[in-house]
């Protein structure tokens, strides 16, 4: 059985991606959470991760002694190991597109990442209004994401047909757009609702909402209220 090491579901966007793939395709795995410390440079998070992964980051997939520590590499490995399932789309053109847009997410959209950290529990609509007004690079990132989403083959469906790795890679963006209530098109909102109805997405979000941990360096916009 696979072992997947993750951090807090409320904050860890990179952990979310392979977790969703494992859940969506019913691949048996053991979830092992190593929570972020409440304050930076405290606790044993780094030591605990380094004991598993010399990269010192999450997520980490362990499979019979093999250690994988990059979200995209993890998902590629899962796709190869479970080739009977369509983790990547079966259609060759949609599969190529899914890989392109996943790689673009993997390496891009730094303005969105930096300005709008994932925080599923929070409602940061007022923050989002100011960010949207003042941050042209953020608006550019969101416009590109909306363009990608608008090109899905079925406006009622997922990015490349059925749910795939590509959707898992854009799942944290869905939560960011909701947290910060950024102004997006009806087509984008429709895709967001499609994602929010996926059973794996619901499970992750339910887990995030149940968490009580407060990580102060991942909460730049609000004071602790829990």
Question: Briefly, what is this?
Answer:
The chain is an alpha+beta fold. It has helices spanning 13-24, 45-50, 71-81, 92-107, 110-115, 125-134, 136-150, 165-180, 186-196, 199-210, and strands at 2-6, 29-33, 60-63, 66-68.
Notes on the protein architecture:
- By secondary structure, the protein is of the alpha+beta class.
- Helix content is 51%, strand content 8%.
- The protein contains ten helices and four strands.
- The radius of gyration is 17 Å and the shape is globular.
- The mean pLDDT is 96.
Key words describing this protein structure:
226 residues, alpha+beta
User: How many separate helices?
Assistant: 10
Task: Give helix % range.
Answer: 40-55%
Main structural class: alpha+beta
The outline comes out as: globular
Total strands: the figure is: 4
Give start-end ranges of low-pLDDT stretches: none
């Amino acid at each position: 059985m696979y072992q997947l090491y993750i951090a807090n579901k409320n904050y860890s966007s990179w952990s979310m991606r392979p977790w969703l793939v494992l859940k969506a395709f019913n691949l048996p795995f053991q979830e092992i959470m190593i929570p972020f410390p409440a304050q930076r440079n405290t606790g044993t998070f780094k030591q605990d991760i380094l004991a598993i992964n010399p990269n010192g980051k999450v997520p980490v997939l362990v499979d019979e002694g093999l250690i994988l520590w990059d979200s995209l590499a993890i998902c590629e490995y899962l796709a190869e190991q479970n080739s009977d399932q369509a983790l990547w789309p079966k259609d060759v053109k949609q599969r190529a597109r899914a890989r392109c847009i996943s790689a673009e997410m993997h390496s891009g959209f730094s303005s969105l990442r930096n300005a709008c950290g994932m925080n599923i529990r929070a409602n940061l609509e007022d923050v989002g209004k100011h960010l949207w007004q003042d941050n042209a690079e953020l608006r550019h990132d969101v416009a590109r994401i909306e363009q990608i989403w608008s090109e899905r083959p079925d406006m009622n469906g997922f990015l490349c047909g059925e749910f795939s790795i590509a959707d898992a890679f854009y799942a944290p963006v869905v939560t960011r757009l909701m947290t910060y209530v950024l102004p997006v098109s009806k087509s984008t909102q429709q895709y967001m609702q499609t994602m929010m109805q996926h059973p794996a997405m619901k499970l992750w979000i339910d887990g995030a909402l149940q968490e009580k941990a407060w990580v102060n360096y991942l909460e730049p916009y609000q004071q602790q209220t829990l």
